[in-house]
Amino acid sequence: MTDADTLEFEIMQKAQQLAALRRKQEDVEVKDYTFEILGGEITLSNLFAGRDRLMMIHNMGQGCRYCTLWADGINGVLSHLEDAMAVVLTSKDPPKIQRQMALDRGWKFRTVSHGGGPYMSDQCSMGEHTNGPGAAIYERRGNSIVRRGRAAFGPGDLYSPVWHFLALAGLEASDWTPQFQYWRRPQKLDDGGENIRE
């Protein structure tokens, strides 16, 4: 077993310890925030859609390539997550922009806009970041809503496998930046190359 193998095993054990600590965290009661959707407004309590738990993905919006990377990854496991809880993505972008982004990316989760209001300042801020990417898990407790836990997203985190695959290749997070699209124009286009949108 190499030193890297040993450390990787220790990291997996630490991740299990982290999960156990999160299960013991005290719940934090939250307000029944209001969000904007294409058809008007919706409250946090209605986002549960009849479920006991809700995962709210905190996305910085269309201008963040990193947030797009995480949302793409979560979209890939959405059916598994939705077996356990409701899942919604929120950002400050208006609902029309969110809808277009979801269509362009093939995202299947519901989206709501916090518009940069109280939800963002109360729930998305962590440390020095007032609109940080991450996720929060909420539970319904009678007429109350509590936050069970939350986590911030960032290069090297536990929530996107991309960083770990890059590390296997010997790359650091600073060696690569996610992009919205990866198509590269060939030197010669067989169709003549008219009307290319890049």
What features would you describe in this structure?
With 198 residues, the protein is α/β, with parallel strands linked by helices. The chain is 34% helix and 22% strand. The protein contains seven helices and eight strands. The strands form two sheets. The protein has a six-stranded mixed beta sheet. The mean pLDDT is 90.
Tags for this model:
34% helix; globular; alpha/beta
Strands, helices and their partners?
Elements: H1 3-24, E1 28-30, E2 34-37, E3 40-43, H2 44-47, E4 53-58, H3 65-76, H4 78-82, E5 86-91, H5 95-105, E6 110-113, H6 118-124, E7 134-141, E8 144-152, H7 162-168
Parallel strand pairs: 4-5, 5-6
Antiparallel strand pairs: 1-8, 2-3, 4-7, 7-8
Overview in brief:
The protein is built from 7 helices and 8 strands. Strand 2 and strand 3 form a beta hairpin.
Sequence of secondary-structure elements? HEEEHEHHEHEHEEH
Global morphology: globular
Broad structural category: alpha/beta
Largest sheet entry:
6 strands, mixed
Q: What oligomeric arrangement do these chains adopt?
A: single chain
Helices, by number, come to: 7
